Amino acid sequence: MTLRWFRNSPEMQEDVRVVTEELKNLYYKRLMPIEKHSSFSHFHSPSYEDADFDNKPMVLVMGQYSTGKTTFINQTWYDFPAVLRWFAERVDRIILLFDAHKLDFSDELTRAFAAVRGHEDKLRVVLNKADRVDSQQLMRVYGALMWSLGKVFPTPEVLRVYVGSFWSEPRRTCDHYQLLEAEEEDLLADIRNLPRNAAVRKLNDLVKRARLVRAHAHIIGYLKQEMPTIFCKESKKHNLIYQLPVIFTKIQQQHRVPAGDFPDCTKMQERLLGQDFSKFKVFKPSLMASLDKLLSTDIAKLMPLLQKQEPKRKKPPPGVLDGEFLGTFRPEHFQRHPFKERPPGDDEGHEKDAGDAWVVERLKPKYDEIFFSLCPRDGKVSGTKAKEWMVNTHLPSSVLAQVWRLADVDCDGMLDNEEFALAVHLIEGKLEGHWLPRELPPHLVPPSKRPCESEDDEEEDVGSDTPL
Fold it and tell me: Picking from 31-35, 79-83, 381-385, which range would have the lowest pLDDT averaged per residue?
């Protein structure tokens, strides 16, 4: 059996693949010809290649010196901020880690901040090891972090900061435990949704590039048109470069190109100084018409495929698993919480629920395949073997520790086939975005571990047969 770690549905994967392939075709068909005609790569970024469309979603993880990043930086001889900037342009998500006990910004981290500016939409901040502080300290640390980030990233939108405990140590019990669980679910859901987000990013990047190419083509065409045929070429070139801000305004008015689509004027002037204007090609309206069709029609046709995959699933209440996951919603208790114990005196439906089958039973044959592949001894798998398999699910150690606590019902440090099936069942649910219960509810307890009621029944029978 293969666990569905961070995989999306086959339907979403197919839609993302279709969008990616269509973006690639549109680029080669409509955008690349005008890029080559206007020498776009000489002034801006190189032409796209297949890898720019086919690459899988990537995550860039950054952190303070306490996470080991400083050692790596000190051992590199190249321009680290430049390398970081290169990665920031190509990844789909940037995760910035902070320790709840260490919020100071090192010099290396400050330079790293400058490298990722302009990509704040990809940035997610994690305030890590938050279980090591109490709620009052957490509130202060969170406020200090937000204030510091506001000075480094002066953006209108507030950066998303997750509070969690992502490291090898077991999670401590704290009064904000449910908050950590909820924040962890939000972050994992964000990562799980990266395939769709990656397709949206590629689409947005292509649109942004196409708008820049359109402005660039108009600029090059105007400069070519104004250049003399024979005499005074060099003086005319310098005059045009000096008048570039005025030229930008003229193009905006004549061709209705938004000002935001134009490149930085100063950088454009610097790059034009080293160019031979006589080698520029004459503006081609047919190439521009093809580019306009890309922006007005072709891109719009792809949007429904991405909109169809918008997340629709609502979150369950904090601290519990979904009823859908456990199969516990039945007509007789449709609106009841599936994991809360019935209050005393509430016997309605008790007889019906008492004989309910174990919810893990229907998938147990698949779970048994994994169990017996681990070579159990005396009908049980040791904690070491179970841990080796559980670690391969890539869930945080704190989550796996909670799964083990719930699954090892008899607390003997080993798992029999029922306990192991329960552990896999909980892991699968967690990987699909569901919630783990704080305590194991009665209907999840393996049948062999449920309290036996036969003795109580016998005592009642004996008492009824005793003569008065």
Answer: 79-83
Residue 397 burial class via C-beta count within 10 angstroms: exposed 0-12, middle 13-18, buried 19 and up? middle
Q: How far apart are CA 268 and CA 408, in angstroms?
A: 66
Residues 199, 16 contacting (CB under 8 angstroms): yes
Are the C-beta atoms of 415 and 378 separated by less than 8 Å? no
Whether the pTM exceeds 0.70: the reply is no
Q: Token digits for 185?
A: 């679910």
DSSP string for residues in 370-429: HHHHT--BTTEEEHHHHHHHHHTT---HHHHHHHHHHH-TT-SSEEEHHHHHHHHHHHHH
Whole-angstrom CA distances from 128 to 160, 176, 361, 435 are 14, 14, 37, 20
User: CA-CA distance, 22 to 423, in Å (whole number)?
Assistant: 42
Render the burial of 362-381: b for 16+ CB within 10 Å, e for the rest: eebeebbebbeeeebeeebb
CB 219 within 8 A of CB 247: yes
Q: Say how many CA atoms lie within 13 Å of 108 toward its Cβ.
A: 18
Spatial distance between the Cα atoms of 410 and 143, rounded to a whole number of angstroms: 43
Residue 451, class by beta-carbon neighbours within 10 Å (0-12 exposed, 13-18 middle, 19+ buried)?
A: exposed
Q: Which amino acid is at 123?
A: L
CA pair distance 341, 444, nearest whole angstrom: 13
Please state the φ and ψ torsions of residue 334, each to the nearest 5 degrees. Answer: -60, -40
Please list, in sequence order, all residues whose beta carbon lies within 8 angstroms of the beta carbon of residue 292, skipping any fewer than 6 positions away: 214
Does the pLDDT of residue 221 top 50, yes or no? Answer: yes
Q: What are phi and psi of 317, to 5 degrees?
A: -60, 150
Query: Alpha carbon of 393 to those of 152, 283, 361, 371, 429: distances in Å?
Result: 36, 56, 22, 15, 12
342-398 pLDDT, tens digit per residue, is: 344 444 444 344 445 788 888 888 888 898 888 888 889 998 889 889 888 888 777
Q: For the chain, state the CA radius of gyration.
A: 31
Which element (helix H / strand E) includes 17?
Answer: helix 10-26
The C-alpha atoms of residue 430 and residue 436 are separated, in whole angstroms, by: 7
Residue pair 197/307 in contact (Cβ under 8 Å)? The answer is no
Q: Which of 385, 390, 411 is nearest to 400 (CA)?
A: 390
Q: How many CB atoms lie within 10 A of CB 9?
A: 10
Given a cut of 50, is residue 416 above it in pLDDT? yes
